[in-house]
Inverse folding.
């Protein structure tokens, strides 16, 4: 293993067999990787020991002693570094999920608009794409944070929406619900309504197959989702108490606060990534040959059906792989949050925790593994979906 | 010259009427004052050099292209920008393309049932039965659950014919259905088309298969530079063409 040069001569005759050769090279490659890894590990161990830093993950149980701007779970300064890790991870996941959700919707809408026969709509979409795709994401984050949100008025002069939603320099204030007497009835109503919608969709599909007649499932479902919970609320009482933010002194009390850092990073990343997704969607739709549309038209299918039954299913196959890498980019770009002090995983764990503890190897290794795990999960999910819809060829 | 092997009597009803049809692509005058009537059950072969406007003509009949002047009436319905009329006409007019244009993400059976289910609101069971009936007629029922990508060119074109027939159209348009096929597959598609002709379908075929024109066509139409130059029954058309351009064209096409 240590001396690869001697391998080929020793196995000279067998090397002509491609199977043997493939195995030999694989084993050599694995050996080299392990060797380098061991060398690095050993070297670092020695260096750390010299500087008197103990390695290992015990530090995760030590108290952190610093506050965090936003946490989705209870957190106080006295909590451990381990809990800081969870808080940071959740904050990263929050930005990623919100970002992917918004970017996908905006991206699909802009991508379809880009192909609109309406000159104005398609030019506006093109303008959106060209502007946001060509400005570095960090700059866009700065723009939303410093130029827009930090320029908001102080709490006393907040922009208000119907005296329930307020926007000021400290963030976006929303009314927050707390469970009231009708809460459980509401949950039950919701479950019943959702089950009703699923049953309705199934019934409509079977009926279409059996009789050829349609049923407007979407509208009926929306109706069920509104009416059933409303009826339950009438009988069992209101499901929530709403805590409306109120100005007391110099600040607001009550309600939910969305901090400006979260708004800025989410807006910037979704708008930036949506520009790329729009191009992917446009290319995907254009990749479906015009002959497909013509064949569908000549059969008498309506434009809406052509899009849904013929174009989109084929376009998706072209769209999914590059869409996956845009999702991965968004997750990785969420680490730019550190630049405006949003407490994501990189900022609080690979930043503050690393600085306080000096456990560079451990924190970086954990952080890297987390990103790797998130990225691999997204890739696996998307690959699975892509396989499921792949075209069958000869 | 052999007699038209499939001689038959034509209905009196006019299925397609083009009168004074003109069309431009920008400055380019593609169709120049086209007049053409097709009676029920009539089989017409349209030929002419490349770029003469054959495809454009038949694509105007189901509104894949828009004409700018003149009248087109299909099965008694005039083609205007009225979507209702366009949809009504497309339901009655089937079309087969040079490159098949099957839906690659659907099985052969699903290709055939898609339009009957979503346009004619046919129950799935019935649509399946209709599809299997026509797949039998084009002699590939055993391929029903395969995807188009798994079939040969000739098989794909026969599926395309079956797909159009499943809508039970009154008129079938063919745009060079055999010119993308390997020579050994041309016959199977032509046989299918001959069989369709025997069943009394009104057919308008753009093709350079002159053997097909001889056996099947009631009338052969020659187009050049956007104009109808000459039209005649196949015997007269091939043995005694009137126009110089027709003679040149036939000379080129029959000599190789
Ligand atoms: N969308 C378009 N824009 C501009 N010109 C067009 C368009 N479609 C067709 N043409 C032109 O119109 C003319 C007639 O085209 P058409 O496809 O009808 O010819 P064709 O007789 O079917 O020829 P071929 O045998 O090659 O299929 C050609 O010169 C072609 O270049
Ligand atoms: Mg053509």
């Amino acid at each position: 293993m240590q001396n690869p040069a001697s391998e080929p001569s020793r196995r000279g005759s067998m090397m002509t067999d491609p199977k043997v050769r493939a195995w030999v090279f694989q084993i050599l490659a694995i050996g080299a990787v392990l060797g380098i890894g061991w060398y690095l590990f050993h070297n670092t161990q020695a260096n750390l020991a010299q500087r008197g830093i103990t390695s290992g993950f015990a530090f995760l149980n030590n108290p952190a002693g610093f506050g965090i701007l936003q946490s989705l779970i209870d957190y106080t300064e006295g909590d451990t570094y381990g809990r800081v890790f969870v808080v940071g991870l959740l904050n990263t996941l929050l930005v990623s999920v919100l970002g992917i959700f918004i970017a996908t919707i905006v991206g699909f809408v802009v991508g379809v608009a880009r192909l609109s026969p309406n000159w104005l709509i398609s030019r506006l979409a093109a303008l959106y794409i060209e502007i946001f795709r060509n400005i570095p994401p960090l700059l866009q984050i700065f723009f939303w944070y410093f130029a827009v949100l930090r320029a908001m008025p102080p709490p006393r002069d907040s922009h208000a929406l119907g005296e329930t939603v307020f926007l000021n320099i400290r963030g976006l204030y929303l009314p927050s619900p707390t469970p009231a007497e009708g809460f459980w009835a509401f949950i039950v109503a919701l479950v019943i309504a959702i089950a009703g919608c699923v049953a309705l969709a199934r019934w409509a599909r079977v009926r279409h197959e059996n009789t050829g007649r349609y049923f407007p499932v979407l509208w009926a479902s929306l109706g069920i989702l509104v009416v059933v919970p409303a009826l339950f609320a009438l009988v069992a009482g209101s499901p929530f108490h709403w805590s409306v933010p109120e100005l007391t002194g110099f600040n607001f009390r009550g309600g939910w606060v969305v901090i400006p850092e979260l708004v800025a990073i989410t807006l910037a990343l979704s708008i930036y990534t949506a520009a790329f997704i729009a191009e992917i969607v446009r290319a995907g739709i254009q990749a479906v040959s015009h002959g497909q549309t013509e064949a569908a038209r000549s059969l008498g299918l309506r434009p809406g059906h052509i899009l849904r039954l013929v174009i989109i299913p084929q376009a998706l196959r072209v769209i999914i792989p590059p869409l996956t890498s845009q999702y991965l980019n968004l997750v990785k770009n969420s680490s730019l949050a550190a630049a405006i002090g949003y407490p994501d995983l990189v900022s609080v764990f690979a930043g503050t925790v690393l600085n306080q503890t000096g456990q560079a190897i451990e924190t970086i290794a954990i952080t890297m593994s987390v990103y790797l795990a998130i990225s691999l999960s997204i890739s696996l999910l998307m690959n699975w979906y892509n396989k499921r819809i792949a075209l069958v060829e000869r | 010259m052999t007699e038209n092997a499939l001689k038959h009597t034509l209905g009196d009803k006019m299925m397609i009427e083009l009168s004074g049809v003109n069309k431009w692509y920008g400055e380019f005058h593609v169709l120049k004052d086209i007049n053409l009537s097709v009676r029920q059950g009539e089989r017409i072969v349209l030929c002419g050099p490349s770029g003469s406007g054959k495809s454009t003509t038949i694509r105007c009949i189901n509104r894949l292209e828009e004409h700018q002047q003149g009248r087109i009436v299909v099965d008694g319905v005039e083609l205007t920008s009225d979507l209702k009329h366009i949809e009504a006409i497309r339901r009655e007019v089937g079309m087969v393309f040079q490159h098949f244009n099957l839906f690659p993400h659907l099985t052969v059976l699903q290709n055939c049932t898609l339009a009957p289910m979503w346009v004619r609101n046919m129950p799935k069971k019935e649509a399946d039965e209709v599809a299997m009936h026509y797949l039998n007629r084009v002699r590939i029922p055993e391929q029903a659950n395969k995807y188009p990508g798994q079939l040969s060119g000739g098989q794909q074109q026969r599926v395309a014919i079956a797909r159009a027939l499943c809508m039970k159209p009154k008129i079938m348009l063919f745009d060079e259905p055999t010119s993308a096929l390997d020579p050994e597959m041309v016959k199977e598609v032509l046989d299918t088309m001959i069989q369709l002709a025997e069943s009394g379908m009104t057919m308008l075929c753009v093709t350079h298969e002159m053997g097909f024109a001889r056996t099947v066509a009631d009338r052969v139409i020659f187009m050049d530079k956007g104009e109808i130059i000459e039209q005649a029954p196949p015997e007269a058309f091939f043995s005694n063409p009137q126009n110089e351009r027709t003679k040149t064209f036939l000379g080129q096409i029959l000599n190789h």
The beta strands of chain B are 14-25, 28-39, 43-47, 69-74, 77-78, 93-96, 171-175, 202-206, 219-224, 227-232. The interface with chain A takes residues 62-64, 87, 90-91, 93-95, 97, 99, 101-105, 114-115, 117-126, 146-147, 149-150, 160, 163-164, 167 of chain B (CB under 8 Å). The mean pLDDT of chain B is 93.
